[in-house]
Amino acid sequence: MSYTANPNSARVAEMIDEAVVIPVLTVGDPSSAVSLARALARGGLTVLEITLRTDTALAAIEAIAEALPEVTLGSGTVLNRDQLQASLDHGCRFAVSPGATSALLDAAEAVGLPLLPASANAGQAMALAERGYLRQKLFPAEPSGGVSLLKSLGEPLPQIRFCPTGGIDVAKAPSYLALKNVVCVGGSWVAPKDAVEAGDWARIEALASAAVALGRRA
Q: Could you check whether the bond before residue 158 is cis, i.e. omega within 30 degrees of 0?
């Protein structure tokens, strides 16, 4: 079966296909959010996902969007229309969900915020592709089967490309990035909690640079 990308998925592709690594960030202190984003951007990571797991996430997103317009911001752990709308209103250019429901997909299309929805198996991936979502997050990547699962999905579902997230670190990332159906990976290792709390932006910049150096597969 041939699938056709919908406009939302095509816009996501434009934003993430050259990202290599998307930092997945849970920001507790919005006052450090701009410094964190600036360090990651200096290291070459300019597509960031801020999860909506804290009460300060939207404030952090707004601060980064205002200070660093060159950074492409996405909100993560998005579950409903209100979060989609708030993400858009605070400066996000895309949203990421840990799964997908018809209601969430309908809301993303109504709000007009491009969504990177998640699948964890072939059936879920196919259901999303039927709605035109040809860029998907594989989540949770490692528990779902990781590299082996993605290899098995490659031939029967060649039009779908993934951003696997969940349990991936700097050691595991290259195996994912070597796959033809992987456009980038998501991970939190580039912004360790202790480095963020200490304001060790030089360390975070170095980790970002190392992530970029993982490079692209041929």
A: no
Q: Which of 82, 83, 9 is nearest to 53 (CA)?
A: 83
CA 41 to chain centroid: 15
Coil, strand or helix at 184: strand
Secondary structure of 42-55 in HEC code, one letter for each residue: HCCCCEEEEECCCC
Burial of 168 (0-12, 13-18, 19+ CB in 10 A): buried
pLDDT tens, residue by residue, 97-108: 999 999 999 999
Taking the C-alpha atoms of residue 113 and residue 126, their distance in angstroms, rounded to an integer, is 22
pTM: 0.96
Contact (CB, 8 A) for 127 and 136: no
- Residues 160, 129 contacting (CB under 8 angstroms): yes
Residues identified as active-site:
49, 137
Return the ∠ at Cα 25 (arms to 198 and 108), rounded to 5°: 160
Which structure tokens are listed for 202?
């030089």
Cross-strand partners of 74: 49, 94
- Please give the distance of CA 11 from its chain centroid, rounded to a whole number: 13
Helix (H) or strand (E) holding 95: strand 94-96
Count CB-CB contacts under 10 A for residue 159: 12
On the question of pLDDT at 216 being above 60, the answer is no
